Amino acid sequence: MAFSSRPLAVPRVEPSSIERVADAFVRGLRCSSSEATPAALREFSTLLDESLSRALPPADWSFIQSCLGDAKKALQCSRQDRLEEARRLWDEVWRLALSRLQSLSLIGRMVLEIFLHPGYAYLRYKMGDYEGSRENIRCASNLDHRLVTEFGLPCLGAQRLQLAHNLLRIHTRLGERNEAIQLGAMLLDYLELRVDPPSSDLLSVRMVLDSAPGGLVEHYFDKITGELAVCLAGAGDAGAPRLFQPLMRHAKSAGCLHDFAPRAHAWMRMKQLGLNDEIAGFLEMAIELLQAGGAAMPTLWFATVLEVVALCRSLGGHASALADRMVADASALIDAPWELKQAAHARGQESSNCEEDEP
Question: Which pTM does this prediction carry?
Answer without folding.
Answer: 0.88
